[in-house]
Amino acid sequence: MRNRSQWFVMIILAALLVASIWYCLQIWRTTPAMPPYGNVVMSLAALVMVVFGSGLIALMYFSGRKGLDETARMSRRSRKWRPVRDPTPGQDS
């Protein structure tokens, strides 16, 4: 069973969700309708965003599987970490 603070947070978040949906519906009802070409442009923009987003996520998974996201300081041959050299020798931190 969840404790009281978790229920309190869930109730607040649910109330914010209901308030934001109510506000959006009020604005939607009071504004004039968009012309048909506006709907076409919005639909094409949404489609382009989904295609680009899916492509970027696919590239992320592809590069993760191929090991392209490994750190530059990692030795490719031994897969062991190389010691990091001090960029300014002679200075103590």
Automatic annotation (TrEMBL):
<feature type="transmembrane region" description="Helical">
    <location>
        <begin position="40"/>
        <end position="64"/>
    </location>
</feature>
<keyword id="KW-0472">Membrane</keyword>
<keyword id="KW-0812">Transmembrane</keyword>
<protein>
    <submittedName>
        <fullName>Uncharacterized protein</fullName>
    </submittedName>
</protein>
<keyword id="KW-1133">Transmembrane helix</keyword>
<feature type="transmembrane region" description="Helical">
    <location>
        <begin position="7"/>
        <end position="28"/>
    </location>
</feature>
<feature type="region of interest" description="Disordered">
    <location>
        <begin position="73"/>
        <end position="93"/>
    </location>
</feature>
